[in-house]
# Entry
Amino acid sequence: MKIKNLDFECYRAATQQHAEYQQDWLKTGYAPRGYYLKDFCLINEGAQWHLFHIAGTPGVSCCLPGNEIWFGHATTTDFCTWTTHLPCFYIDPAGWDCGHVFAPSVVKHAGKYWMFYTGCSVENTQRIGVAVSADLFRWERAAPRPVIRPEEYPWAFCPTVNGSACRDPHVCRVADEFVMFYTAVTKAGRGCVARATSTDLLHWNDGGPAYVAPSLAHCESSTMQPLGDKFLLFFGGHYKYWSYVVSDNPAHWPEQKPIPLMKGITAMEVVLTSGARWLVAYFKFDSLRLFLGGIDWSAATPAIDEVTDPAKLREFGLGNNTPRVGLTSSAR
# Structure
């Protein structure tokens, strides 16, 4: 007698509906059905972009136990149609990251993918850990403890209990080493973007604050991008605008007033570049969904113009089958 497995059929139907659900994502912004999306990263592999992101329940604080405990994963070839996959990485209930996981950053090195992430205790004490994958779907922690531990650094205010700021890693290659930028707080109580370097992605050397904000208690969601012979350090925080500062040196940004780019967004990632034009992704505070925009750095006052028409993606080789000649992928 063959017994119908209704429980498995329910699971299979739910996951299929989850994967196939579509909206006009350029206009509505992408997020998995029933969840919100916050800090994220994109990595280009062949014809696909993989998106990894914070996922949570609308109306529930990120600080409450049980929320923001796994990373969402989705793929796209054109940023108009998304396939939503099952969650790919969870908290470790018995580990140092037992409360929440925030802000993934993925790079490829030595035949593997490396995901750096903010791990939190239940009371929101934050450190940065790393996981590895061979296929971008199955992830395992690569180290038993955090790889960034600011309580060991003389400049940092970073208690080991009852909450502390050490979050939002952005990992990139500069010259012959990997560099991580992340947000933290100095012992003077000032928000900063800190820097660390590594040659193997497991062992990191503290570089101290790369930029100390003149008026922020916390910086948020930092990322660094080269532009010509300059280096732009982007971040949000308690400013109304997603902003950046400029330096000739990728290890240090002198104190300066941040330059605003767009109001009401944060966590911008560069997807593709075409000359002076960048295609970027970000999430909005009012909807907690992923949107696309363009920046023209040749403009007198560069700003982000939101992209809602698929035709505007063709400049970057998206939405058609033409090769992306002259385009550079900046996805991590």
Remarks:
- The first strand starts at residue 36 and ends at 45.
- Residues 43 and 243 are 23 Å apart (CA to CA).
